[in-house]
Write a structure and sequence with these properties.
- The structure is a single chain.
- The protein is α+β, with helices and mostly antiparallel strands and about 500 residues long.
- It contains seven helices and 15 strands.
- The strands form four sheets. It has a six-stranded antiparallel β-sheet with strand order 7-6-11-3-12-13, with no helix packed on it.
- α3 packs antiparallel against α5 (about 360-390).
Length: about 500
Protein backbone atom coordinates (compact mmCIF):
# COMPACT_ATOMS: atom_id res chain seq x y z
CA UNK A 1 0.00 0.00 0.00
CA UNK A 2 1.29 3.40 -0.89
CA UNK A 3 1.68 5.71 2.07
CA UNK A 4 1.63 9.38 1.24
CA UNK A 5 2.78 12.33 3.23
CA UNK A 6 -0.81 13.45 3.62
CA UNK A 7 -1.74 10.12 5.17
CA UNK A 8 1.14 10.34 7.59
CA UNK A 9 0.22 13.90 8.47
CA UNK A 10 -3.41 12.97 9.12
CA UNK A 11 -2.43 9.97 11.27
CA UNK A 12 0.07 12.08 13.13
CA UNK A 13 -2.50 14.81 13.85
CA UNK A 14 -5.11 12.22 14.84
CA UNK A 15 -2.74 10.56 17.33
CA UNK A 16 -1.57 13.90 18.74
CA UNK A 17 -5.18 15.03 19.19
CA UNK A 18 -6.10 11.76 20.91
CA UNK A 19 -3.16 12.04 23.27
CA UNK A 20 -4.08 15.66 23.90
CA UNK A 21 -7.71 14.76 24.70
CA UNK A 22 -6.57 12.03 27.10
CA UNK A 23 -4.15 14.50 28.70
CA UNK A 24 -6.94 17.09 29.00
CA UNK A 25 -9.22 14.53 30.65
CA UNK A 26 -6.53 13.54 33.14
CA UNK A 27 -5.78 17.22 33.77
CA UNK A 28 -9.47 17.83 34.62
CA UNK A 29 -9.54 14.82 36.93
CA UNK A 30 -6.31 15.97 38.52
CA UNK A 31 -7.54 19.53 39.10
CA UNK A 32 -11.16 18.68 40.16
CA UNK A 33 -10.66 15.29 41.80
CA UNK A 34 -13.78 14.01 39.99
CA UNK A 35 -13.93 11.16 37.49
CA UNK A 36 -16.39 12.88 35.17
CA UNK A 37 -17.50 16.45 34.56
CA UNK A 38 -20.58 15.72 32.45
CA UNK A 39 -23.02 12.75 32.50
CA UNK A 40 -22.21 12.04 28.85
CA UNK A 41 -18.66 11.16 29.80
CA UNK A 42 -19.83 8.06 31.71
CA UNK A 43 -23.62 7.58 32.09
CA UNK A 44 -23.20 4.65 34.49
CA UNK A 45 -21.18 6.72 36.95
CA UNK A 46 -23.64 9.61 36.53
CA UNK A 47 -26.73 7.47 37.27
CA UNK A 48 -25.07 5.76 40.22
CA UNK A 49 -23.97 9.17 41.57
CA UNK A 50 -27.55 10.52 41.41
CA UNK A 51 -28.90 7.53 43.33
CA UNK A 52 -26.16 7.69 45.95
CA UNK A 53 -26.54 11.46 46.37
CA UNK A 54 -30.33 11.09 46.80
CA UNK A 55 -29.90 8.35 49.39
CA UNK A 56 -27.22 10.32 51.22
CA UNK A 57 -29.39 13.45 51.22
CA UNK A 58 -32.30 11.53 52.78
CA UNK A 59 -29.94 9.89 55.22
CA UNK A 60 -28.57 13.28 56.28
CA UNK A 61 -32.12 14.55 56.78
CA UNK A 62 -32.77 11.72 59.22
CA UNK A 63 -29.35 11.69 60.85
CA UNK A 64 -28.60 15.41 61.13
CA UNK A 65 -32.08 16.93 61.48
CA UNK A 66 -34.94 14.58 62.37
CA UNK A 67 -33.13 12.48 64.97
CA UNK A 68 -31.47 15.40 66.82
CA UNK A 69 -34.84 17.20 66.92
CA UNK A 70 -36.58 14.06 68.19
CA UNK A 71 -33.89 13.51 70.83
CA UNK A 72 -34.17 17.10 72.03
CA UNK A 73 -37.98 16.79 72.32
CA UNK A 74 -37.69 13.52 74.24
CA UNK A 75 -34.92 14.90 76.48
CA UNK A 76 -37.16 17.82 77.47
CA UNK A 77 -40.06 15.44 78.11
CA UNK A 78 -37.95 13.08 80.20
CA UNK A 79 -36.59 15.98 82.25
CA UNK A 80 -40.12 17.19 83.03
CA UNK A 81 -41.33 13.70 83.98
CA UNK A 82 -38.30 13.22 86.23
CA UNK A 83 -39.06 16.48 88.04
CA UNK A 84 -42.72 15.45 88.44
CA UNK A 85 -41.65 12.11 89.89
CA UNK A 86 -39.31 13.89 92.32
CA UNK A 87 -42.15 16.19 93.40
CA UNK A 88 -44.47 13.23 93.94
CA UNK A 89 -41.77 11.61 96.07
CA UNK A 90 -41.70 14.71 98.26
CA UNK A 91 -45.51 14.73 98.47
CA UNK A 92 -45.40 11.06 99.45
CA UNK A 93 -42.94 11.86 102.23
CA UNK A 94 -45.24 14.54 103.67
CA UNK A 95 -48.22 12.21 103.43
CA UNK A 96 -46.32 9.53 105.38
CA UNK A 97 -45.55 12.11 108.04
CA UNK A 98 -49.14 13.31 108.17
CA UNK A 99 -50.55 9.78 108.35
CA UNK A 100 -48.30 8.53 111.15
CA UNK A 101 -47.27 11.49 113.30
CA UNK A 102 -49.14 13.70 115.73
CA UNK A 103 -48.68 17.05 114.06
CA UNK A 104 -48.41 20.38 115.81
CA UNK A 105 -50.16 23.44 114.40
CA UNK A 106 -46.81 24.65 113.09
CA UNK A 107 -46.17 21.31 111.39
CA UNK A 108 -49.61 21.39 109.78
CA UNK A 109 -49.14 24.94 108.50
CA UNK A 110 -45.76 23.98 107.07
CA UNK A 111 -47.25 20.96 105.31
CA UNK A 112 -50.12 23.02 103.89
CA UNK A 113 -47.76 25.62 102.47
CA UNK A 114 -45.32 23.08 101.06
CA UNK A 115 -47.92 20.79 99.51
CA UNK A 116 -49.62 23.76 97.88
CA UNK A 117 -46.36 24.82 96.24
CA UNK A 118 -45.57 21.27 95.14
CA UNK A 119 -49.00 20.92 93.55
CA UNK A 120 -48.53 24.12 91.59
CA UNK A 121 -45.09 23.00 90.44
CA UNK A 122 -46.41 19.66 89.18
CA UNK A 123 -48.81 21.39 86.83
CA UNK A 124 -46.23 23.99 85.83
CA UNK A 125 -44.07 21.11 84.62
CA UNK A 126 -47.02 20.08 82.47
CA UNK A 127 -46.51 23.27 80.47
CA UNK A 128 -42.96 22.34 79.51
CA UNK A 129 -42.29 23.31 75.91
CA UNK A 130 -39.66 22.65 73.28
CA UNK A 131 -38.97 25.35 70.70
CA UNK A 132 -42.29 26.99 71.53
CA UNK A 133 -44.29 23.74 71.27
CA UNK A 134 -45.93 22.23 74.35
CA UNK A 135 -44.70 18.65 74.69
CA UNK A 136 -47.62 17.15 76.65
CA UNK A 137 -50.57 18.38 74.58
CA UNK A 138 -50.60 15.99 71.63
CA UNK A 139 -51.37 17.63 68.29
CA UNK A 140 -52.41 20.86 70.05
CA UNK A 141 -48.81 21.96 70.53
CA UNK A 142 -49.85 25.63 70.59
CA UNK A 143 -52.24 25.11 73.53
CA UNK A 144 -50.94 24.86 77.08
CA UNK A 145 -51.78 21.85 79.24
CA UNK A 146 -53.07 24.09 82.06
CA UNK A 147 -54.81 27.43 82.25
CA UNK A 148 -52.15 30.11 82.62
CA UNK A 149 -54.69 32.45 84.22
CA UNK A 150 -58.07 32.04 85.86
CA UNK A 151 -60.88 32.34 83.32
CA UNK A 152 -64.66 32.24 83.18
CA UNK A 153 -65.49 33.31 79.64
CA UNK A 154 -65.95 29.78 78.31
CA UNK A 155 -68.31 27.03 79.42
CA UNK A 156 -67.12 23.43 79.19
CA UNK A 157 -69.60 20.58 78.92
CA UNK A 158 -67.45 17.66 80.09
CA UNK A 159 -67.96 13.90 79.84
CA UNK A 160 -66.07 11.76 82.34
CA UNK A 161 -66.04 8.00 82.49
CA UNK A 162 -65.60 6.01 85.69
CA UNK A 163 -66.03 2.45 86.87
CA UNK A 164 -67.11 0.85 90.11
CA UNK A 165 -63.45 0.74 91.11
CA UNK A 166 -63.37 4.56 90.98
CA UNK A 167 -65.70 4.83 93.99
CA UNK A 168 -63.77 5.96 97.07
CA UNK A 169 -64.60 5.02 100.65
CA UNK A 170 -63.83 7.98 102.91
CA UNK A 171 -64.25 9.00 106.55
CA UNK A 172 -66.00 12.21 107.53
CA UNK A 173 -66.57 13.87 110.90
CA UNK A 174 -70.12 15.20 111.34
CA UNK A 175 -72.12 17.23 113.86
CA UNK A 176 -69.66 20.04 114.47
CA UNK A 177 -70.15 22.15 117.55
CA UNK A 178 -71.37 25.63 116.41
CA UNK A 179 -69.67 27.76 119.05
CA UNK A 180 -70.55 30.95 117.16
CA UNK A 181 -74.16 30.37 118.26
CA UNK A 182 -73.17 30.51 121.92
CA UNK A 183 -74.57 33.58 123.73
CA UNK A 184 -72.78 34.39 127.04
CA UNK A 185 -75.86 36.28 128.22
CA UNK A 186 -78.06 33.22 127.81
CA UNK A 187 -75.83 30.12 128.03
CA UNK A 188 -78.73 27.74 128.65
CA UNK A 189 -80.21 28.63 125.27
CA UNK A 190 -77.28 26.91 123.56
CA UNK A 191 -78.42 23.32 123.08
CA UNK A 192 -76.45 20.62 121.31
CA UNK A 193 -78.65 17.95 119.81
CA UNK A 194 -76.17 15.63 118.08
CA UNK A 195 -72.69 14.90 119.28
CA UNK A 196 -69.68 14.69 116.91
CA UNK A 197 -69.43 11.37 115.16
CA UNK A 198 -67.43 9.65 112.42
CA UNK A 199 -69.20 8.24 109.36
CA UNK A 200 -68.16 6.32 106.27
CA UNK A 201 -69.14 7.82 102.92
CA UNK A 202 -68.98 6.59 99.34
CA UNK A 203 -68.15 9.05 96.63
CA UNK A 204 -67.05 9.50 93.03
CA UNK A 205 -64.71 12.47 92.76
CA UNK A 206 -64.92 14.40 89.50
CA UNK A 207 -61.82 15.85 87.90
CA UNK A 208 -62.84 19.38 88.93
CA UNK A 209 -64.33 21.15 91.89
CA UNK A 210 -66.47 24.31 91.80
CA UNK A 211 -68.57 22.92 88.98
CA UNK A 212 -71.74 24.59 87.72
CA UNK A 213 -74.96 23.85 89.58
CA UNK A 214 -77.39 21.82 87.46
CA UNK A 215 -80.04 24.55 87.37
CA UNK A 216 -81.42 23.36 84.04
CA UNK A 217 -82.32 19.87 82.88
CA UNK A 218 -79.43 18.16 81.19
CA UNK A 219 -76.67 20.11 82.95
CA UNK A 220 -75.83 16.98 84.93
CA UNK A 221 -76.46 13.45 83.77
CA UNK A 222 -75.26 10.13 85.13
CA UNK A 223 -75.53 7.02 83.00
CA UNK A 224 -74.50 3.47 83.84
CA UNK A 225 -73.68 0.80 81.29
CA UNK A 226 -76.15 -2.05 81.39
CA UNK A 227 -74.64 -5.37 82.44
CA UNK A 228 -75.91 -8.86 81.67
CA UNK A 229 -76.03 -11.78 84.08
CA UNK A 230 -72.44 -12.73 83.19
CA UNK A 231 -71.11 -9.26 83.96
CA UNK A 232 -70.65 -8.25 80.33
CA UNK A 233 -71.61 -4.84 78.94
CA UNK A 234 -74.87 -4.88 76.98
CA UNK A 235 -74.60 -3.38 73.47
CA UNK A 236 -77.20 -2.57 70.82
CA UNK A 237 -77.24 -3.84 67.22
CA UNK A 238 -74.73 -1.16 66.16
CA UNK A 239 -72.30 -2.11 68.92
CA UNK A 240 -73.00 0.95 71.09
CA UNK A 241 -73.18 0.55 74.87
CA UNK A 242 -76.69 0.71 76.31
CA UNK A 243 -77.00 2.90 79.42
CA UNK A 244 -79.41 3.34 82.31
CA UNK A 245 -80.01 6.98 83.25
CA UNK A 246 -79.84 7.99 86.96
CA UNK A 247 -80.08 11.75 86.43
CA UNK A 248 -83.44 12.03 88.22
CA UNK A 249 -82.03 10.62 91.46
CA UNK A 250 -79.60 13.49 92.08
CA UNK A 251 -79.79 16.01 94.92
CA UNK A 252 -77.55 19.11 94.84
CA UNK A 253 -75.81 20.52 97.93
CA UNK A 254 -72.56 22.11 99.10
CA UNK A 255 -69.97 20.14 101.04
CA UNK A 256 -70.30 22.66 103.89
CA UNK A 257 -74.04 22.05 104.31
CA UNK A 258 -75.01 19.96 107.35
CA UNK A 259 -75.22 16.28 106.55
CA UNK A 260 -73.70 16.75 103.11
CA UNK A 261 -71.93 13.39 103.31
CA UNK A 262 -74.84 11.54 104.94
CA UNK A 263 -76.90 10.12 102.10
CA UNK A 264 -79.75 7.84 103.02
CA UNK A 265 -80.80 7.12 99.46
CA UNK A 266 -79.93 8.16 95.92
CA UNK A 267 -77.05 10.41 94.89
CA UNK A 268 -75.89 13.78 96.22
CA UNK A 269 -73.98 16.22 94.02
CA UNK A 270 -71.60 18.51 95.91
CA UNK A 271 -70.89 21.29 93.43
CA UNK A 272 -68.13 23.05 95.37
CA UNK A 273 -65.95 19.94 95.67
CA UNK A 274 -67.13 18.14 92.53
CA UNK A 275 -68.15 14.99 94.41
CA UNK A 276 -70.96 12.54 93.84
CA UNK A 277 -71.81 11.10 97.26
CA UNK A 278 -73.63 7.78 97.05
CA UNK A 279 -75.90 6.06 99.48
CA UNK A 280 -74.81 2.62 100.65
CA UNK A 281 -77.50 1.04 98.50
CA UNK A 282 -76.30 2.84 95.38
CA UNK A 283 -72.69 1.97 96.21
CA UNK A 284 -73.53 -1.73 96.43
CA UNK A 285 -75.28 -1.51 93.05
CA UNK A 286 -72.51 0.44 91.33
CA UNK A 287 -69.29 -1.02 92.69
CA UNK A 288 -69.23 -3.80 90.10
CA UNK A 289 -70.25 -1.58 87.16
CA UNK A 290 -67.62 -1.29 84.44
CA UNK A 291 -68.72 1.99 82.86
CA UNK A 292 -70.20 5.01 84.64
CA UNK A 293 -70.61 8.11 82.48
CA UNK A 294 -71.00 11.53 84.10
CA UNK A 295 -71.78 14.67 82.11
CA UNK A 296 -71.49 18.07 83.81
CA UNK A 297 -70.63 21.69 83.12
CA UNK A 298 -67.91 23.98 84.44
CA UNK A 299 -67.34 27.65 83.70
CA UNK A 300 -64.89 28.96 86.28
CA UNK A 301 -61.34 27.64 86.08
CA UNK A 302 -58.46 28.63 88.34
CA UNK A 303 -54.89 29.19 87.33
CA UNK A 304 -53.03 25.88 86.84
CA UNK A 305 -56.24 23.88 86.34
CA UNK A 306 -55.76 21.23 83.66
CA UNK A 307 -57.54 22.04 80.40
CA UNK A 308 -60.43 19.58 79.87
CA UNK A 309 -59.88 19.31 76.10
CA UNK A 310 -56.65 17.38 76.71
CA UNK A 311 -58.36 14.78 78.92
CA UNK A 312 -62.04 14.38 78.11
CA UNK A 313 -64.67 14.57 75.43
CA UNK A 314 -66.04 18.06 75.87
CA UNK A 315 -67.83 20.93 74.15
CA UNK A 316 -66.64 24.50 74.66
CA UNK A 317 -69.03 27.43 74.35
CA UNK A 318 -67.70 30.98 74.14
CA UNK A 319 -69.79 33.06 76.54
CA UNK A 320 -68.51 36.33 75.09
CA UNK A 321 -69.73 35.64 71.55
CA UNK A 322 -73.20 34.13 71.12
CA UNK A 323 -72.75 33.76 67.36
CA UNK A 324 -69.64 31.64 67.69
CA UNK A 325 -70.20 27.94 67.14
CA UNK A 326 -69.27 25.67 70.07
CA UNK A 327 -66.05 23.72 69.63
CA UNK A 328 -66.30 19.96 70.11
CA UNK A 329 -63.21 18.10 71.34
CA UNK A 330 -62.96 14.32 71.18
CA UNK A 331 -60.40 12.61 73.35
CA UNK A 332 -58.19 10.48 71.15
CA UNK A 333 -54.70 9.12 71.02
CA UNK A 334 -52.56 11.89 69.48
CA UNK A 335 -49.16 10.49 68.60
CA UNK A 336 -46.56 12.83 67.15
CA UNK A 337 -44.25 10.70 65.02
CA UNK A 338 -40.95 11.57 63.38
CA UNK A 339 -39.60 9.71 60.36
CA UNK A 340 -36.19 8.64 61.60
CA UNK A 341 -35.20 6.25 58.81
CA UNK A 342 -36.39 4.96 55.48
CA UNK A 343 -40.05 3.92 56.08
CA UNK A 344 -39.49 3.99 59.85
CA UNK A 345 -41.39 6.31 62.20
CA UNK A 346 -41.08 6.78 65.96
CA UNK A 347 -43.54 8.41 68.36
CA UNK A 348 -41.68 11.13 70.25
CA UNK A 349 -44.36 12.66 72.48
CA UNK A 350 -45.92 11.68 75.79
CA UNK A 351 -49.47 12.91 76.26
CA UNK A 352 -50.36 14.72 79.46
CA UNK A 353 -53.30 12.40 80.06
CA UNK A 354 -50.85 9.49 80.19
CA UNK A 355 -48.56 11.08 82.80
CA UNK A 356 -50.14 14.00 84.68
CA UNK A 357 -53.50 13.13 86.23
CA UNK A 358 -56.19 15.24 87.86
CA UNK A 359 -55.93 13.03 90.93
CA UNK A 360 -52.61 14.64 91.84
CA UNK A 361 -54.08 18.07 92.47
CA UNK A 362 -57.42 16.80 93.74
CA UNK A 363 -55.73 14.54 96.29
CA UNK A 364 -53.46 17.31 97.53
CA UNK A 365 -56.43 19.70 97.76
CA UNK A 366 -58.29 17.16 99.86
CA UNK A 367 -55.35 16.80 102.24
CA UNK A 368 -55.03 20.58 102.52
CA UNK A 369 -58.74 20.87 103.28
CA UNK A 370 -58.49 18.18 105.98
CA UNK A 371 -55.52 19.98 107.57
CA UNK A 372 -57.35 23.32 107.46
CA UNK A 373 -60.39 21.75 109.11
CA UNK A 374 -58.24 20.46 111.97
CA UNK A 375 -56.59 23.86 112.31
CA UNK A 376 -60.00 25.57 112.46
CA UNK A 377 -61.23 23.08 115.09
CA UNK A 378 -58.11 23.70 117.17
CA UNK A 379 -58.84 27.43 116.96
CA UNK A 380 -62.37 26.75 118.27
CA UNK A 381 -60.91 24.83 121.20
CA UNK A 382 -58.46 27.66 121.95
CA UNK A 383 -61.29 30.17 121.88
CA UNK A 384 -63.29 28.14 124.41
CA UNK A 385 -60.21 27.85 126.66
CA UNK A 386 -59.79 31.61 126.46
CA UNK A 387 -63.41 32.13 127.57
CA UNK A 388 -62.96 29.67 130.44
CA UNK A 389 -60.04 31.72 131.75
CA UNK A 390 -62.23 34.79 132.13
CA UNK A 391 -62.38 35.69 135.83
CA UNK A 392 -65.91 37.07 135.50
CA UNK A 393 -67.38 33.83 134.16
CA UNK A 394 -70.56 32.65 135.85
CA UNK A 395 -71.15 29.06 137.01
CA UNK A 396 -73.79 28.62 134.29
CA UNK A 397 -71.41 29.88 131.63
CA UNK A 398 -68.59 27.70 132.95
CA UNK A 399 -70.78 24.61 132.89
CA UNK A 400 -71.92 25.25 129.31
CA UNK A 401 -68.40 26.10 128.12
CA UNK A 402 -66.98 22.91 129.61
CA UNK A 403 -69.71 20.96 127.87
CA UNK A 404 -68.84 22.72 124.63
CA UNK A 405 -65.13 22.10 125.21
CA UNK A 406 -65.73 18.39 125.64
CA UNK A 407 -67.64 18.27 122.37
CA UNK A 408 -65.06 20.33 120.45
CA UNK A 409 -62.27 18.19 121.87
CA UNK A 410 -64.11 15.09 120.61
CA UNK A 411 -64.61 16.87 117.31
CA UNK A 412 -60.87 17.62 117.16
CA UNK A 413 -59.98 13.99 117.82
CA UNK A 414 -62.36 12.81 115.08
CA UNK A 415 -61.18 15.39 112.57
CA UNK A 416 -57.57 14.58 113.34
CA UNK A 417 -58.38 10.95 112.65
CA UNK A 418 -60.12 11.98 109.41
CA UNK A 419 -57.08 14.09 108.49
CA UNK A 420 -54.75 11.16 109.04
CA UNK A 421 -57.13 9.02 106.98
CA UNK A 422 -56.95 11.64 104.22
CA UNK A 423 -53.16 11.44 104.37
CA UNK A 424 -53.35 7.65 104.18
CA UNK A 425 -55.70 7.78 101.19
CA UNK A 426 -53.37 10.31 99.60
CA UNK A 427 -50.48 7.87 100.01
CA UNK A 428 -52.34 5.31 97.93
CA UNK A 429 -53.31 7.87 95.31
CA UNK A 430 -49.81 9.34 95.07
CA UNK A 431 -48.25 5.89 94.77
CA UNK A 432 -50.61 5.17 91.87
CA UNK A 433 -49.67 8.47 90.28
CA UNK A 434 -46.00 7.63 90.64
CA UNK A 435 -46.67 4.31 88.94
CA UNK A 436 -48.31 6.21 86.06
CA UNK A 437 -45.34 8.57 85.79
CA UNK A 438 -42.85 5.70 86.01
CA UNK A 439 -44.66 3.85 83.23
CA UNK A 440 -44.56 7.00 81.11
CA UNK A 441 -40.83 7.41 81.80
CA UNK A 442 -40.15 3.75 81.01
CA UNK A 443 -42.13 3.98 77.76
CA UNK A 444 -40.29 7.15 76.79
CA UNK A 445 -36.97 5.52 77.70
CA UNK A 446 -37.62 2.47 75.54
CA UNK A 447 -38.42 4.70 72.57
CA UNK A 448 -35.33 6.78 73.27
CA UNK A 449 -33.16 3.65 73.19
CA UNK A 450 -34.66 2.75 69.80
CA UNK A 451 -33.84 6.26 68.61
CA UNK A 452 -30.25 5.93 69.79
CA UNK A 453 -29.83 2.56 68.06
CA UNK A 454 -31.24 4.00 64.85
CA UNK A 455 -28.93 7.00 65.14
CA UNK A 456 -25.92 4.73 65.60
CA UNK A 457 -26.89 2.62 62.59
CA UNK A 458 -27.53 5.69 60.44
CA UNK A 459 -24.11 7.03 61.42
CA UNK A 460 -22.53 3.86 60.06
CA UNK A 461 -24.71 3.96 56.94
CA UNK A 462 -23.76 7.57 56.33
CA UNK A 463 -20.08 6.62 56.41
CA UNK A 464 -20.74 3.73 54.04
CA UNK A 465 -22.71 5.89 51.60
CA UNK A 466 -20.04 8.58 51.66
CA UNK A 467 -17.39 5.94 50.90
CA UNK A 468 -19.50 4.56 48.04
CA UNK A 469 -20.10 8.05 46.68
CA UNK A 470 -16.42 8.87 46.89
CA UNK A 471 -15.48 5.58 45.23
CA UNK A 472 -17.97 6.27 42.45
CA UNK A 473 -17.15 9.93 41.79
CA UNK A 474 -13.68 10.68 43.11
CA UNK A 475 -10.49 9.71 41.33
CA UNK A 476 -7.51 8.03 42.91
CA UNK A 477 -5.16 11.00 43.04
CA UNK A 478 -1.98 8.91 43.17
CA UNK A 479 -3.06 6.87 40.16
CA UNK A 480 -4.22 10.04 38.36
CA UNK A 481 -0.92 11.81 38.93
CA UNK A 482 1.03 8.80 37.61
CA UNK A 483 -1.23 8.50 34.58
CA UNK A 484 -1.06 12.24 33.99
CA UNK A 485 2.74 12.24 34.05
CA UNK A 486 2.86 9.24 31.74
CA UNK A 487 0.38 10.76 29.32
CA UNK A 488 2.32 14.01 29.40
CA UNK A 489 5.45 12.08 28.33
CA UNK A 490 3.49 10.27 25.63
CA UNK A 491 2.06 13.54 24.32
CA UNK A 492 5.50 15.15 24.23
CA UNK A 493 6.91 12.07 22.50
CA UNK A 494 4.18 12.21 19.86
CA UNK A 495 5.00 15.86 19.20
CA UNK A 496 8.73 15.03 18.92
CA UNK A 497 8.11 12.10 16.57
CA UNK A 498 5.87 14.24 14.40
CA UNK A 499 8.46 16.97 14.19
CA UNK A 500 11.17 14.53 13.14
CA UNK A 501 9.05 12.66 10.61
CA UNK A 502 7.96 15.82 8.89
CA UNK A 503 11.49 17.27 8.43
CA UNK A 504 12.25 15.20 5.22
CA UNK A 505 10.02 15.46 2.15
CA UNK A 506 10.21 14.46 -1.58
CA UNK A 507 11.48 17.90 -2.44
CA UNK A 508 14.69 17.19 -0.53
CA UNK A 509 15.62 14.60 -3.24
CA UNK A 510 14.80 16.62 -6.30
Amino acid sequence: MRVTNRMMTNNMLYNINGNKNTLATLEQQYSTGMKIQRPSEDPIIAVRALKLRTNLSELNQYYKKNIPDAKAWMDVTESALTVINDILTQVHTYCVQGATDTLTAQDRNSIVETLGELKRQVYQEGDTNYAGRYVFTGYKTDTSLVFSESQSNEKYAITENFSGESIDIIKKSINDCPIDEYDPDDPEAFEIEDRPNMITSYRIRLAYGNVDSPEEDGNLTIRLAQMDADGNVVRDEDGNIEYDDFSDDIETMLSTDPGAYQVESGIRYLTDTGELVLSEEVYNEWRNIGDIEVNYEKTKFAKNDLRPEHYFNCTVTDLTDEDKEPIVYTKEDQQISYEINFNQKLMINTQGSDAIQHDIGRTIDEVLNAVNVVTATQAKLDEIDKMLKDENITPEQEKKLKEMREMVNTELVLKTEAMQSAFSNALTKIEKQQDVVNVAVADLGSRYVRLQLTESRLGEEQTDFEDLLSSNEDVDMVDTVIRYRAMQSIYNASLSAAAQSMQTTLLDFL
